[in-house]
Amino acid sequence: MAHEDDARQAVPNMPGTRTDGVARRRPLREQHVEETVRVAVPVRTAYNQWTQFKTFPRFSAVVRGVEQPRPTVTVWTVGYGPLRHRFAAEIVEQDPDAYLAWRGLEQYPSHQGEIEFRPTESGGTAITVRMLLEPQGGARILAASSRAARLTARLTARLVRGELMHFKRFIEGLGQESGAWRGTIRNGRVQYEHPEPPRSRVARWPVG
User: DSSP alpha helices (H): ranges in 16-84?
Assistant: First the structure.
């Protein structure tokens, strides 16, 4: 069996690698769900709007509310009708106009995902979402069967595809982003261009 490094070299643009060949993060497993949609707005516009997580309920069929207590942590409320589920997710990597990766902070089930933004020849944007659900306990045993795994993948793919189409109609209707967050995140930490100097622990007494 080939090593993971050999696989990365054979497929340089596989999920989880950058175009310069540097590993971005551990790539999603082969069983991930992948969906792509093309939107008729520039990459910057599409990316900027996507980072406005609190606007997701305006176009999503399942997202009911989003809170962002920290730049790298979002709390989502999703569901249909009276059914609601609340979970937190951490953004582990974010490159403006290019890439965003996250992982769920709950264990039952756990999930992870990534989204890529690429310019198209027509000046629009190709948005690709990859997700992986990892059931636990009894659900994990059930998902081990090929039929259950295929059903889970189909349902997840349908949901992701539908949400992408909702976003497409939303951003193309707006024509421009309603806001933006242009920060960079590495390993779950925001990277600041000008870090604050260390604060002195010596008390400053008033003078004069």
Answer: 43-50
Distance in angstroms (rounded) separating the CA atoms of residues 101 and 83: 27
Please report where in the chains the tokens 């100097």 appear, as a residue.
Answer: 197
Tokens of 200: 């002195």
Residue range 110-151, pLDDT digits in tens: 788 999 999 999 999 999 999 887 765 444 444 455 666 677
Tell me the domain boundaries of the chain: 32-176
Cβ–Cβ under 8 Å, residues 148 and 155: no
Task: Kindly report whether the global pTM for this prediction surpasses the value 0.85.
Answer: no
Give just the sign of the alpha carbon dihedral 70, 168, 26, 149: positive
Which architecture, in CATH terms, is 32-176?
2-Layer Sandwich (3.30)
**Token code pair at residue 111:** 């999930």
Contact 58, 50 (CB under 8 A): no
> How many Å apart are CA 24 and CA 119, to the nearest integer?
20
**Which tokens hold the place of 18?**
């950058």
| Residue 99, helix vs strand vs coil | strand
Structure tokens at 9: 């070299």
